[in-house]
Design goal:
It is built from 11 helices and 11 strands. By secondary structure, it is of the alpha/beta class. It has a single domain, classed as Aldolase class I (TIM Barrel, Alpha-Beta Barrel). The strands form 2 sheets. It has a 9-stranded parallel sheet. It has a two-stranded antiparallel sheet with strand order 10-11. Helix 8 links the parallel strand 6 and strand 7. It binds iron/sulfur cluster (SF4). The site of iron/sulfur cluster (SF4) has 8 residues, from loops. Iron/sulfur cluster binds next to loops.
């Protein structure tokens, strides 16, 4: 096996990634931590705040997602697009609480030109004017729409691959893996950073997890931000009965992501509410260096504000006045 020494590579083989993933846990975490320290300040954890600006009623059928209109059993209140003034006010609150990045999510299949997209542009401009990084997730994008977002100052576009190309059809059938890759390429071509990762715990194999990392690490450059989510099974979705994964599986995934994408920000995302403080800290040791904070992540529970304050106090960050900026 080639050593994972912090070199940026785009030629990882899937089997090489599997070999890293199955290292003895302490060896894996140790190597990941060494690479993390080469490339990042080990004491710095970026705090991102996530707001659902348009909730529910999405025409896509992602099996894990309570916002899909296909999952009629889900108990979710749908909301129309929020107004830009309220969104920017929530961003200001999040900034005062220590957030550096403000992420806005709309449950759309794709962006449509018109009043709603104009409002999103206004939100991006408003968040940037606060001096914060702005990220949006809006579904598929056409080049002229990516250009407008870039002109508005968008820092990053979130568009997750979710899982491996091989497993993808078991999770989503209303769009293809190639659709995702095309949007990512469009976003990248306008100089916007990519926030792109996936979810574990949906019934995929370790090879699937490695295969997803293989696609991500094959991108040039690597996505600047890689969210690693653990499935939060939601009643009424097809994955409702999926068992919650062992936190150590998340640790392994974070560590492997850190080894194959040494310079990226690895974000501990959904599923953090199922981790105790110590498991979260182990993820941070293994190379995660960003978290979402706030009571909810779009529509699923996140670590509570009190728990986050406790977490940041425990790792030596003293600015613990976090408040939620989540609407959902
Ligand atoms: S994950 Fe996104 S695209 Fe899929 S159903 Fe949910 S909101 Fe729609």
């Amino acid at each position: 096996m080639m050593a994972a020494d912090g070199t940026i590579r785009h030629d990882w083989a899937i089997d090489e990634i599997i070999d890293l993933h199955k290292l003895p846990l302490l060896e894996l975490v140790g190597r990941a931590n060494a690479v993390h320290r080469m490339r990042h300040d080990p004491n710095k954890v970026q705090k991102a705040s996530l707001l659902s600006i348009k909730t529910g009623g999405c025409p896509e059928n992602c099996a894990y997602c309570p916002q899909s209109a296909h999952h009629r059993e889900v108990d979710l209140t749908r909301d129309t697009l929020m107004d830009p003034e309220s969104v920017v006010a929530m961003a200001a609150t999040a900034k005062a609480a220590g957030a550096e990045r403000f992420c806005m999510g709309a449950a759309w299949r794709q962006v449509r030109d018109g009043r709603e997209f104009d409002a999103v542009i206004e939100m991006v401009e408003g968040v940037r004017a606060l001096g914060m990084e702005a990220c949006v997730t809006l579904g598929m994008l056409k080049p002229h729409q990516a250009e407008r977002l870039a002109t508005a100052g968008l820092t990053a576009y979130n568009h997750n691959l979710d899982t491996s190309p091989e497993f993808y059809g078991r999770i989503i059938t209303t769009r293809t893996y190639q659709d995702r890759l095309d949007t990512l390429a469009t976003v990248r071509s306008f100089g916007i950073d990519l926030c792109c990762g996936g979810i574990i715990g949906m019934g995929e194999t370790i090879r699937d997890r490695a295969s997803m990392l293989h696609v991500l690490a094959g991108m040039t450059p690597h996505p600047e931000s890689v969210p690693i989510n653990a499935l939060v099974p939601v009643e009424g979705t097809p994955l409702a009965k999926q068992p919650v994964i062992d936190p150590l599986e998340l640790v392994r995934m974070v560590a492997t992501a850190r080894l194959v994408m040494p310079a990226s920000t690895v974000r501990l995302s959904a599923g953090r509410s199922n981790l105790n403080r110590e498991a979260q800290i182990l993820c941070l040791v293994a190379g995660a260096n960003s978290v979402f904070y706030g009571d909810t992540l779009l529509t699923t529970p996140n670590a509570g504000i009190g728990e986050d304050a406790e977490l940041f106090a425990a790792i030596g960050e003293l600015e613990c006045n976090h408040v939620s900026a989540s609407a959902a």
